[in-house]
Request: fold
Amino acid sequence: MSTHEAITLAHQEEWARVVASLTKRFGDLDIAEEAAAEAFATAVERWPTDGVPPNPGAWLTTTANRKAIDRLRRENKRDDKHKEAQLTHDSPEPPSIFDDDRLRLIFTCCHPALAIEARVALTLRMVGGLTVPEIANALLASESAVGQRITRAKAKIKAARIPYRVPSAQDLPTRVSGVLTVLFLVFNEGYLATGPDTAPLRHDLTAEAIRLTRLIRTLLPDNGEVTGLLALMLLTEARRTARVSASGELVALDEQDRGAWDTRLIAEGHQLVRERLAAGVAPGRYQILAAINAVHTSARDMRDTDWSQVLALYDQLVRVDPSPVVALNRAIAVAELDGPEVALATVDRLEEQLTGYHAFHATRADLLRRLGRSQESRAAYDKAVELAGNTAETAYLTRRRDQLRS
Reply:
């Protein structure tokens, strides 16, 4: 492994640990983020010459701690900050079954005192380690807006003295919904990375989202949406190795080698879906999405997919989440049952709401292709390619466009 690859891997695996460790010690997200960034910058300078340390995480944490202390000294606030850090470090916490700094960090970033947009942006930055441009792409927002959200969120946490801890048992049910939203977005960024300069699939993000969701499920074993989200993640992650070809192109569901799917993850995901069905409680958004993925991963071949069941589940999902993206995905199931012309009529009605969403244009392009309307399909593919930030997806869309007849 080259030094560059080692630094990239360390950033993926250690960023959240370093930030969480510093946040626990110094009680300040600004200090934690800046010191962590400086530690990684130092690694870029020194590791090519000194070699990769035996324990990169420990090296980065130690270096970041020194950077943080140096900053406090430069600001001539060391005594006050040191006292504050000691209070943060030594103050008693409510009993918790977990001593996990990253779990503390995510609940801090997802505190209800923050707007949901701020929670998502802050968590993607502090826990996921994404850059501001990557977050802006993920949230379909401008870089300046994302930067302001993160800055204001950190300032509010400091001003309101929001505690760095896992909530008490009484507070967990009301706090978990916002955390699940953020974890789902973090998972999605790993599932299909938006940054053009990143790997198309980021296993570090999907793995971290799954890990934290498992922890939260242990805290709230009877919460159906926690279980549903974990099942959804597992059934999606099971297809990861089949989703990008050797040439770096995205592989659509109907073209994937199903023999390459992770049967262990599929079995676990199916078990969780069955567990929620047996509970006899009306399912929420994540449970329905998990059930849809269970149908897809139950089919040995695309032709064996029970599209009637998929559509029935989407009908149920629309009642829970009547968003245009859900309507778009429902139209894909409609195309399989009622034909592309019926589906296209639904998709076209979503244009005003989804005109900046690449998947809208990609779906429309495919439906037009199936109807033999090649010129219109090509124009839709052009728009999808223009909007797609993922390199593997761009390669796939470009090939599909170029296969159209003139």
